[in-house]
Design a protein that fits this description.
Number of strands: 15
Helix content: 25-40%
Largest sheet: 5 strands, antiparallel
Number of domains: 2
Shape: globular
Number of helices: 6
Structural class: alpha+beta
CATH class of the largest domain: Alpha Beta
Length: 243
């Protein structure tokens, strides 16, 4: 599919226009950033891996009733998606303590959270993606009450589906980030962005071996191998018996 004009370039992806004003091409880069772009680098073939993982998981979620922006994968690094008006919020779903939650509250990593913790973050690198609540969101008109209810319900559904899916593949879904947007005149709420080792924390069950961008963030090494292993686990057959 031919590219139109470049509409946007972020830390990990580029969006291009198409002949259809309601569809864009999402291109996955190998650029890697951490700590709100304070740390930068490259993960070889990260874009290829993240495109394949995201496409697979978007299709899985759609089959389970979660509406997403995904239409189809076009190439190793590109997917065709619905053009969204991105809501300036990030959702973090936490099943196990790690990363920002552990730092903010001064608690150990690895504590299982029952029920899972839902967080809103204001999408702003300049401000460090601060943690906010519903009242803040309504005060700045980032979303409506009805939209917040939809996003919260969809996020919990995504968590239920993905947590079970990864458990069958020997992986604990520790936490992950989601973004949503409005599509079309009806402003339908759709899941957007990507779902990949860039946006999720994956720990191997039992060993807690990290198979995500924390290997880049924390200089743990074997980053490319971890991403490739996650691709193999995502698209491969279950390794743990389904109960």
């Amino acid at each position: 599919m031919p590219h139109g004009e470049q509409l946007y370039e972020g830390k990990a992806k580029i969006l291009y226009a198409t002949e259809d004003p309601q569809q864009v091409i999402q291109y996955f880069k190998d650029d890697a950033t951490a700590f709100n772009a304070q740390k930068k680098g490259t993960i070889v073939d990260k874009g290829v891996v993240n495109n394949q993982i995201s496409a697979h998981l978007f299709q899985l979620l759609a089959a389970q009733g979660v509406p997403t922006h995904f239409i189809k994968r076009l190439s190793d690094r590109e997917m065709l998606v619905k053009k969204l008006e991105i809501i300036p919020l990030e959702v973090t779903m936490r099943n196990i303590t790690a990363g920002g939650m552990s730092r903010m509250l001064g608690i150990d990593e690895g504590i299982v959270l029952e029920p899972p913790v839902f967080e809103w973050h204001y999408k702003s690198d300049a401000l460090g993606d601060p943690l906010i609540n519903d009242d803040h969101i309504l005060a700045i008109n980032a979303a409506t009450v009805e939209e917040l209810e939809q996003i919260r319900a969809l996020s919990r559904r995504v968590n239920d589906v993905l947590k079970a899916y990864f458990a069958q593949r020997g992986i604990d879904l520790v936490d992950f980030k989601l973004e949503f947007g409005r599509f079309g005149p009806a402003k339908q709420i759709l899941l957007g962005d990507e779902i990949s080792p860039d946006t999720c924390r994956f720990w191997e069950q039992g060993t807690k071996r990290k198979l995500d961008k924390d290997r880049f963030r924390r200089d743990l090494g074997d980053v490319e191998a971890a991403y490739q292993e996650m691709l193999n686990r995502v698209i491969g057959a279950p390794t743990v018996a389904v109960k």
